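step: validate -> pass
step: tokenize input -> pass
step: predict -> running
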Amino acid sequence: MPFVNELKLRGSYGELGNDRVPGYQFLQAFEFGNAVLGGSGVPAIVPSTLPNPNITWEVSKKLDIGLVAELWDGLLGVDLTYFRQNRSNILWPRNLSISRAFGFPALPHENIGKVNNHGFELVLSHRNQVGDLVYSVSANSTFARSKIINMDEVPPAEPYQAATGHPVGSDLYYKADGIFHTLEELNSYPHGNGAQVGDIKVLDLNDDGQINGDDRYRTNKSATPEYVFGLTTNFQYKGFDLTLFFQGQTGALSYDNVLTEFGQQDLDNNTVYRATDRWTANNQQGTMPRADAWEPGATDFFLYDATFIRLKNLELGYSFRNMLAKGKSLDDVRLFVSGTNLLTWAKEIKWRDPEIRGGFTEYPPLRIINFGVDVKF
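step: predict -> pass
step: emit ->
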């Protein structure tokens, strides 16, 4: 085919191991402690761990199948890869098949877990010249989804709480339905102890007339995005050059409240988005909960879609090469301005960096602008 410059298929298969768990679990260890004798504790040497002499590597089997093509002398380039990864023998402590009444506070890791991953990577490129304009464009996207096959999970109280069959990292949340605006609304609907007007209204998912842990549901997404993508462009026109790099993600959830050892902490409680139109005695129809609102636990009221697109890098330059006399010691002088993290378009999280997981617990990326000159002799 005359328009095909390159076309090839590729494939690979490999197996890897992983042992990233606390070491020496195959050995019996002892420590000084207390043993119960005659109804009272006495100093003694007691076993500190339950050994697993059969512990071995986790096994990861990965299959890649790819297609690479260059068409019409570079007008279109395609690089597509499908991958599938099956992880088995994952080191995980048993939860269901051994009772906690067995006697040890912690069970050893065993090769019982199984997780499957699959997805694709796609890169499309285009380069061309139109008169004095030379340009290239490259777009890439990656999709990856995991699924827990087995983790010796204790059957949950409700089927919608099971982790098995869901992505790794998916979590449990109470289902929110706005806030309690009036005392009459609060008294007419199930709520937990301590709930007040202005607090988050939590749905009674199992319809048992009370709000407790059985009303939590498991999401089908996690803080890890299912899609990440990027776009790189380069333009050259006479002495000017412009490079742009965009990046983004979708298919991720970000939770902005953090449960600490001291109780519920609303890290966004002081932000403008959290304070604007919050419930107060003078604003009983507010859309946001009152300050320091009560919650039974993590609710999806503070669970946000972390989709965003960011202008990650930009560089604009001008070269005086064609203006310089040939044969002289000075070959080129180029002026440029560059920037990093210049603009971000977010779907829901507009008050902070949407790429950071968990609110304000990490330092946000800086916006940096540079001016410079390159001199070549």
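step: describe -> The CA atoms of residues 166 and 220 lie 6 Å apart.
step: cleanup -> pass
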